[in-house]
Amino acid sequence: MDIDALALPGNTMALKEKLKELGTVKSFEEGDVIVPEHSHIRSIPIVLSGTIKVFRTDEDGREILLYYIESGESCIMSFLGGLHHETSKIKAIANEPSQILFIPVDKITLLIKEFPEWLDYIFRLYHKRFEELLEVINAIAFTRIDERVLQLLQKKTMVTNSKTISTTHEQLATELGTAREVVSRLLKQMEEKGMVKLSRNKIVLL
Fold first, then answer.
1. What are the tens digits of pLDDT across the range 106-133?
2. Among positive and negative, which fits the CA dihedral 146, 152, 158, 162?
3. What is the CATH number that goes with domain 3-141?
4. How far apart are CA 39 and CA 24, in angstroms?
5. Lower CB count within 10 Å: N or C terminus of the chain?
6. Which residues does 155 contact at the CB level (< 8 Å), separation at least 6?
7. pLDDT value for 86
């Protein structure tokens, strides 16, 4: 996707031209850290291609996956943090080779004033992220861990548009905020039930 293909609301030609003028495009490989936790936010990322995983880390260093940022979307947490001159509360990592458009934080107020459709774009993203965070809370509070493993695998197939998921048991455990041994045991049970096929660093959702 290039910037002209961004799904922005309303008459957005002028806005897209402004984003091109203000922004800088950078490429990232899978696993690259795009937004470090506790870093000063100097620019807002918009995903042109690929996907980003957003994590939250607790005081003991344990991580949990909050949501994915897909092509055409931005990181609302970075937007809010940059707008209020706060450090990042999350860590964003490239889930696959990705191209990101970075808009300087000091240009955000200008965009809001000049382009009402930009604010509409941000509000729609905020609503989507809020619903996804509610799903994470509900899953942790009310959903069995085996159901959460299946839901995460289903989400990954939706994001990548492939039934074959390149990941390790350790990575899945990190994203779920649980132990690798728990994930390995549950995946083995799912394989015995014909739900998945396991191989080295790959899982096929059947």
1. 998 888 888 888 888 888 889 999 998 8
2. negative
3. 2.60.120.10
4. 19
5. C
6. 68
7. 87
Q: Do 102 and 3 touch, CB atoms closer than 8 A?
A: no
Angle between helices 180-192 and 169-176 (to 10 degrees): 110
Strand order in the sheet with 98-104: 24-28, 98-104, 43-49
Domain ranges, ordered by start, for the chain: 3-141, 144-205
Q: How far out from the chain centre does Cα 96 lie?
A: 11
Q: What is the CATH number of domain 144-205?
A: 1.10.10.10
The residue with tokens 């690929």 is 50
How far is 140 from 176, CA to CA, in rounded Å?
9
Q: DSSP class of residue 188?
A: H
DSSP characters over 97-159: SEEEEEEEGGGHHHHHHH-HHHHHHHHHHHHHHHHHHHHHHHHHHHS-HHHHHHHHHHHHHHH
| Helix (H/G/I), strand (E/B), else coil: 49 | strand
Would you call 163 helix, strand, or coil by DSSP? coil
Q: Report the distance separating Cα 28 and Cα 93, nearest Å.
A: 9
| CA angle, 203 then 156 then 204, to 5° | 20
Running DSSP on this structure, what letter comes out for residue 11? S
Are 16 and 5 a contacting pair, CB within 8 Å?
no
CB 54 within 8 A of CB 69: yes
Quick count: other Cβ atoms within 10 Å of Cβ 174?
17
Look up the pTM and report it.
0.78
